[in-house]
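Forgive a beginner's question, but would it be possible to get a protein, spelled out as residues, together with the matching structure tokens, please?
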Amino acid sequence: MGLIDKKLMRKLWEDFVYRRHLNPLVKTDIQEAWLRSRDHGVNPHVQSATQLLSSEELAELQQQKQELMWISLPLMENLYSFVKGSSFLVILCDEKGWLMKTLGEEETLELADKIKFIDGASWSEEAMGANAIGTCIAINSPIQVWASEHYTEACHPWTCSAAPIHDASGELIGVLNMSGPVEKVHPHTLGMVVSTAAAIEKQLQIIEKTRGNAMMKSLLEATTDTLSEGMIIIDTAGKILKTNEILHRIICKKEHELVGKDINEIFDNGFFQEIGASKANVIDQEIKLKISGSDRQARVLITSKGIFQHKKKIGKLLTIKEIHKVRQMINQFSGNQAKVTFRDIVGENEKIRKVELEAIAAARSDSNVLLTGESGTGKDIFAQAIHNESDRRYKPFIAINCGGIPRDLLGSELFGYEDGAFTGARRGGTPGKFELGEGGTIFLDEIAEMSLEMQVLLLRVLQDKEVVRIGGYKVVPVNVRIIAATNKNLREEVEKGNFREDLFFRLNVIPLTLPPLRERRDDIPRLAEYFIEKLAMRIGKTPLKVEPSFYDALQQYEWPGNVRELQNILERAIVKGDGNKLVPGDLPAELFGDASFLAKEELPIKDEIKKQALMQSIEMCEGNYSRAARHLGISRSTLYRQMERYGVSKLR
């Protein structure tokens, strides 16, 4: 089961803490952890860790675990490099839940210090109840614990992912944990922790098998080849001493072609001459890597750090990260992923099914798609589904609302900018969405709102498949698929001079028009049932029954706001309803017409709906029948006749 609503999770926690009630919505592992926490006598309202080692005891523990820490630290630093700047901590613990080493930014470490989430603190279940570290130890398995899934309130603002670390014999010897703000929860976080813990275990196994001099060589090989970036070690003269498999793949050269050579023989970049002479370290400098004797180039981030022995510099370590891998990680953490598939689209109406089949066919090509239709018809949903059905499904899906971003900022948002391009520009510049979306899909919503100046730049990108950052001169090749959407008639906008004709033809390769909800009334009950189930669970009103006349009332309305309006109206009705049943009286008055449907006997509306409308209007007007009649657009005498006809009693 995926994550549920934060407020609902808090309620489920309160149900257990105050009323000893375990709701089946709570994950099984968490249920069992809560029960153990209660049996341990843990105070759920504690605000910080209660068991702390002295500095001497912590130093002794770290000495005992020296080998585990020595192996883990480089991989922890590698893991932390992916989440640096996102308020995450990376933590190593022993098998009893004592924190031994924490990596993080100063501001996040200060927050952790407030709850004593620090080196030397115990975060076992016995000490702090259900939490990722303690529960991981208890079940000897990876786990992610989020918000109020934690047993103690101290941890409710956090999301934590932990994985066990075993030695070569399978004995539990530690835990690797990553913790951050609750709103940044992401399933990929646990996967990253599990992968790093596995790499640590792999190196532990190598050490166990290869003690002595052979062990040190094997350890170096395993360490470098489990890194996610390329690595080069050079001596002070620039001679290459060691490389890893990732580097070989990036530059398409084998180890024997590199080791022993001068680094300037391998690369044509002047950068390598500069770092050989420089004493300063370089951190994530972006360059286009040029390999000697080859046309191959790669855009990378390079970091260089000095290597010292007895305080004397003996060489440098260069790490090389491929730009597209870095951006892929950024996209995962920033949520640039499509969540909806065609299986999630609700409806059996002939018109929507026809569009869906056309969209599935479009997904199998790489052509640009133009989605049109009224506001609220689900153009964004179809865009995500097309992406997830395409060969680009594992690449980024980036949505841009062209009408929601100021015109002056849209260019930098799409194309990026260089350092100093304009006042307020971020130091070092930043890539635009076209670069971040490499290999994936860019969804341009409200494309008709894009200015003519920006249309020219977009047309150039579509024609040349490359971008130039604002304020820059370097040409960056891009490979993205465009899906555009609008609720306007773009042909008319072209005729009015508001939209470029050449850009229209570029976008309108595969046109798809989504039908309004009033043209697929037979789908309204299906959509309503789907939304009611989801909304009731989120709001905490389950199970919820629905009167058939409730669906009948929904089918009479014109739905100018389409599916989006239907969802909003249903949420309002669920919140407003007193019991566990939805009836027409829970719907707002505008659904029953802006004039007198009561006076139009030919309308196919059931008597129960009319009765509910009468009762609702009279209640809204607090028994003032003249006001109720005006509200319904009928005379007072007609109101009395309708009340008598439908059995509505006068208020006393």
